[in-house]
């Protein structure tokens, strides 16, 4: 069975339960989950909402990142989903999870997965601030 169990870029609300269920594996002694949410400030400025956009090839890049993590760590199961479209404060923007034989490996693999997703997958964030200004961020947060 493929260790990459769930990948997606979606315009609907994300489910932590779906991601967690996808990485369930009897060979895993540790599962690490990261949930990224929309916060109410950035660089000291109040954020009111934001919008994510993705390049048409973003899902292929997400798969490439997942395959890289699966090759570098003893992953038993991996899942990653990212939201696009308009999000409100507190909404879930991204969920990644990795199961490995041991907790340390799971923590390291999930940290690397979210960091590489943020830096390598072409998803962009447009933040709307309380003063009416906006800011594009070059990679997802």
In summary, what is this structure?
By secondary structure, this protein is α+β, with helices and mostly antiparallel strands. It has helices at 16-22, 58-72, 103-120; strands at 4-10, 30-37, 41-42, 45-54, 77-83, 85-88, 92-100, 123-129, 134-137. One of its GO terms (biological process) is Mo-molybdopterin cofactor biosynthetic process.
- Mean pLDDT across the residues is 95
CATH C-level class: Alpha Beta
Strand segment tally: 9
The H-and-E topology, N to C, reads as: EHEEEHEEEHEE
Query: Could you say what the CATH topology is called?
Result: Aldehyde Oxidoreductase, domain 3
Family: Belongs to the MoaE family.
Subunit structure: Heterotetramer of 2 MoaD subunits and 2 MoaE subunits. Also stable as homodimer. The enzyme changes between these two forms during catalysis.
Pathway: Cofactor biosynthesis; molybdopterin biosynthesis
Keywords: Molybdenum cofactor biosynthesis, Transferase
Task: For this entry, give a set of tags.
molybdenum cofactor biosynthesis; Aldehyde Oxidoreductase, domain 3; Molybdopterin synthase catalytic subunit 1; five-stranded antiparallel beta sheet; 28% helix; alpha+beta; EC 2.8.1.12; 9 strands; Mopterin_biosynth_MoaE; four-stranded mixed beta sheet; elongated; 141 residues; transferase
């Amino acid at each position: 069975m493929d260790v990459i169990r769930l990948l997606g870029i979606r315009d609907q609300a994300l489910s932590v339960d779906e991601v967690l269920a996808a990485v369930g594996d009897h060979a895993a002694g540790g599962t690490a989950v990261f949930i990224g949410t929309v916060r109410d400030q950035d660089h000291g400025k109040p954020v009111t909402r934001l919008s994510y956009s993705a390049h048409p090839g973003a899902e292929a890049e997400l798969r490439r990142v997942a395959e890289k993590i699966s090759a570098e760590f003893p992953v038993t199961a991996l899942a990653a989903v990212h939201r696009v479209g308009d999000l409100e404060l507190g909404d879930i923007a991204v969920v990644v999870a990795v199961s490995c034989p041991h907790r340390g490996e799971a923590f390291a693999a999930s940290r690397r997965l979210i960091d590489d997703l943020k830096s390598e997958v072409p998803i962009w964030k447009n933040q709307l601030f309380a003063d009416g200004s906006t800011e594009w961020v070059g990679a997802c947060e």
